[in-house]
DNA sequence: TATGGTACAGACAAATTTGTAAGTAATGAG
DNA sequence: CTCATTACTTACAAATTTGTCTGTACCATA
């Protein structure tokens, strides 16, 4: 949640693009270093913070927090806090996020295919 | 084509993630501020550099060049130089990129739907 | 009273991406 | 010889994202 300069060309461009293109809008939601990894892990149900952290190799708590916050804002994950000590918080996909699953599965297949093509060029 | 530090955690993380997840791999290909816009414009056939530049609001020649170069490297667009003066260069989608079209059309639909949901939250 | 587990928050720095503002080569037209 | 056109390139600066490290509240348990 580092604030962005509200007057930068960079931000204006991004806004303009996202406004005018549903596709770019969609990809922006799931862009960012860790978002897809997080969403994937949640594909089979709820997980708590520490479970996510432990399953995603290399992520720091800070990054996990930041990306979860954004995903929450975007309405892709739902956050539930249990009033316990020590605290317990879990995350799950929202219904609109679940609609993405079949799409990203195709995209993943495409990725696999493309990767092979690139390995043995011709 | 700004070089990246080969020893940074940032790059190591990216490599690791992309290696281990076809989905992230795929999304990385089309990530970046302008790539999808460019690909969309090429959906209906070849365009030359200046045509792309004029159709993509806000892009600079530098950015267009950079992103086209990456797309070319990734095998998503094909670049053809005509030996003329003044120079003429055109760009078109490769066949693997064309396979993405139906997927991104679904993603675009999802984006539109999601956008509406967000506008009138409940 | 000291310790421990959980889910973070904050300050700061490094890395990366994006934008700005020039300039270039080649050559045909005038 | 001068200028215009096209598709770039380069140096530099600003913005943004990602990573490092330290610290916090809560209370149950030893």
Greatest contact between two chains: A-B, 42 and 42 residues
Number of strands of chain A: 3
- What is the CATH topology classification name of the largest domain in chain A? Arc Repressor Mutant, subunit A
Shape of chain A: globular
| Helix content range of chain A | 55-70%
Task: From the alpha carbons, calculate the radius of gyration of chain A and give it in angstroms.
Answer: 17 Å
Rounded to the nearest angstrom, the distance between the terminal CA atoms of chain A is 44 Å
CATH architecture descriptor of the largest domain in chain A: Orthogonal Bundle
CATH class of the largest domain in chain A: Mainly Alpha
Number of domains of chain A: 2
Task: Tell me the CATH superfamily of the largest domain in chain A.
Answer: Winged helix-like DNA-binding domain superfamily/Winged helix DNA-binding domain
Subunit organisation of the chains = homodimer
- Biggest beta-sheet profile of chain A: 3 strands, antiparallel
Mean pLDDT across the residues of chain A is 93
Could you explain the architecture of this structure?
The structure is a homodimer of 122-residue chains. The first copy, chain A, is mostly helical. Chain A folds into 2 domains: 30 residues, no CATH class; 87 residues, Orthogonal Bundle (Arc Repressor Mutant, subunit A). The first copy, chain A, contains 7 helices and 3 strands; from the N terminus they run H-H-H-E-H-H-E-E-H-H. Chain A has a 3-stranded antiparallel β-sheet with strand order 1-3-2. In chain A, strand 2 and strand 3 form a beta hairpin. Chain A is globular, with a radius of gyration of 17 Å. The termini of chain A are far apart. At the A-B interface, helix 1, helix 2, helix 3 and helix 7 of A face helix 1, helix 2, helix 3 and helix 7 of B. The structure holds a DNA duplex (30 and 30 nucleotides).
């Amino acid at each position: 949640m580092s604030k962005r300069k509200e007057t930068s060309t960079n931000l204006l461009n991004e806004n303009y693009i996202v406004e005018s293109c549903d596709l770019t809008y969609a990809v922006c939601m799931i862009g960012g270093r860790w978002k897809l990894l997080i969403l994937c892990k949640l594909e089979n149900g709820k997980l708590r913070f520490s479970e996510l952290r432990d399953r995603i190799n290399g992520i720091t708590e800070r990054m996990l927090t930041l990306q979860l916050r954004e995903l929450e804002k975007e309405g892709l994950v739902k956050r539930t806090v249990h009033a316990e000590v020590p605290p317990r918080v879990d995350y799950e996909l929202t219904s609109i996020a679940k609609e993405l699953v079949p799409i990203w599965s195709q995209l993943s297949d495409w990725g696999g295919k493309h990767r092979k093509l690139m390995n043995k060029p011709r």
